[in-house]
Design a protein that fits this description.
By secondary structure, the chain is α/β, with parallel strands linked by helices. It has ten helices and twelve strands. 34% of the residues lie in helices and 24% in strands.
């Protein structure tokens, strides 16, 4: 089964030296391994999967798994070594079981990273979650390949917030959050971090359909057994999302209930920072 997963990635052009940003739901995959192949040891399953991914991109590649958490912004302590993510069960498993991965520093939008650029990513102390000098800026500048495994693009393309901040969309603004932070050495301190948050008066629903990215010719996909894998390069994603925001009122990005993007009027909310 892991061989089929890797073969599918190769079919989509993933190769040695690539940077992979992996958004996923491995629930069905693990269930298939247990039911179809009789492999019930989850640690064995996930170790094999991770090992195969590492072998695929090699020592010149880099792998990022999102481990996002929204506890710090609620005033709760963030412990970089122990705080679990609110999304991505595989990322939480990596946090607890794979010492060859490092965690990036932002308490709300961190990644488990491995490979050539893992140390430099872990050393970034980006205060701004979606800024140019965040891991999101890194995956854009280095044209990472976004992998969506058994999920729709909409479910995994947090990268859209990086695009929104780059463009300074008028319905978002910078907000600072402060709470206790325990670093990799176990030292606790009070820290402040920033997110480019949505004006809550603006009611919207994420749209970002797979069909939109397919229509632009930038989404490749394949299937094996019951599973789907899709891939989009970050630079291509940035370009088509930027164009939609600037020239189509972001209609393929969001469905706004009570708002239309107006670039001439400035922010809908006064910045807090």
């Amino acid at each position: 089964m892991c061989d089929k997963f890797i073969a599918s990635l190769k079919k989509l052009g993933v190769k040695n030296g690539d940077i992979l940003y992996i958004s996923s739901d491995f629930t069905l995959f693990l269930a298939d391994l247990a039911d179809t192949y009789g492999i019930k040891n989850i640690n064995y399953q996930l170790n094999t999967l991770i090992d195969n991914l590492q072998e695929l991109v090699g020592n010149n590649g880099t792998i990022l798994f999102p481990i996002f958490s929204w506890e710090f912004n609620k005033g709760k302590v963030f412990d970089i070594k122990n705080s679990k993510g609110s999304t991505g069960a595989i990322s939480n498993w990596i946090l607890q079981n794979r010492k060859d991965f490092l965690r990036t520093k932002h308490p709300m939008y961190s990644f488990m990273v491995w490979g050539k650029d893992a140390r430099s990513l872990a050393n970034i102390n980006n205060v701004d979650a979606f800024g140019q000098f965040s891991p999101f800026g890194y995956i854009h500048k280095n044209n990472a390949k976004m992998i969506f495994f058994d999920i729709s693009v909409r479910q995994g393309i947090t990268f859209v917030h990086y695009v929104e901040e780059t463009l300074q969309v008028p319905y978002r603004y910078f907000k600072s959050f402060c709470s206790d932070y325990i670093d990799e050495n176990g030292v606790k301190s009070k820290r402040s971090y920033v997110m480019y948050v949505r004006d809550l008066a603006i009611q919207s629903h994420e749209y970002l359909s797979d069909e939109f990215f397919e229509s632009k010719g930038i989404l490749s996909k394949t299937n094996f057994d019951k599973h789907s894998i899709k891939i989009i390069s970050c630079k291509n994603a940035f370009n088509v999302m930027q164009d939609d925001f600037l020239n189509n009122f972001g209609k393929n990005m969001y469905i706004f209930d009570n708002y239309t993007i107006d670039w001439t009027k400035g922010s809908t909310h006064s910045d807090e920072i």
